[in-house]
Amino acid sequence: MVAGKMNKLNVLYEDNHIIVVEKSPNILSQSDITGDEDLLTIVKKYIKDKYNKPGNVYVGLVHRLDRMVGGIMVFAKTSKAAKRLNEQIKNNVIKKTYVAVLDGILSKKEGTLVDYLYKDEKLRISKVVDKNFKGAKKAELNYEVIGYYNDRTIVKINLITGRYNQIRVQFKNIGYPLYGDQKYGNKNNELIRLYAYKLELLHPITKEVLTYKLIPSWEELKNETIIHRL
Prior knowledge:
Layout: E1 11-14, E2 18-23, H1 39-51, E3 60-61, E4 70-76, H2 79-90, E5 95-103, E6 110-120, E7 125-129, E8 137-149, E9 152-159, H3 166-173, E10 194-202, E11 209-213, H4 224-228
């Protein structure tokens, strides 16, 4: 899909309980005060049109991606499925794996980042603070370097927590902002190189393990060796 355009929804899986789709960069996960296009509304329209449903269509939002970030998302089609998916999120059963491109050469091949983040609601940014700072929340992720491209580092990231702008802020904090991140200090007029490429969950009804993967079409990922490591 073209960034910013969702005329045709890319559906990876759908049944009576859930729908798994791709979110393009620069699309909101859900509506906000801007009134711009959002994925939740797009999914509702898709279901309404496909099944010719009258009235309002129920679609449950159980997780989000930053507006500028693309990747795989799951939505609930029933309140029962939404409740169970929310429980999976709370208990870290749902696994979201990201690929990102960092500005600079990160020499440490793998590691864990643990910080305390504070979300400034007024400025809509997160920042690293002392753990005793009022409103601070623990943020943790694991990363693995899977390759390099020019003066950039390609990393695979497993989120342990899901804080606002967490990946972007934590890598910025260690001196390696995400390539193309206009918000946190890498202003190069490129789309941010952050993508939720893999999603693993238990089906909320059947308990079957479901795994979905999509590799973004970035220039940094044209090397088959790197793709194989994702």
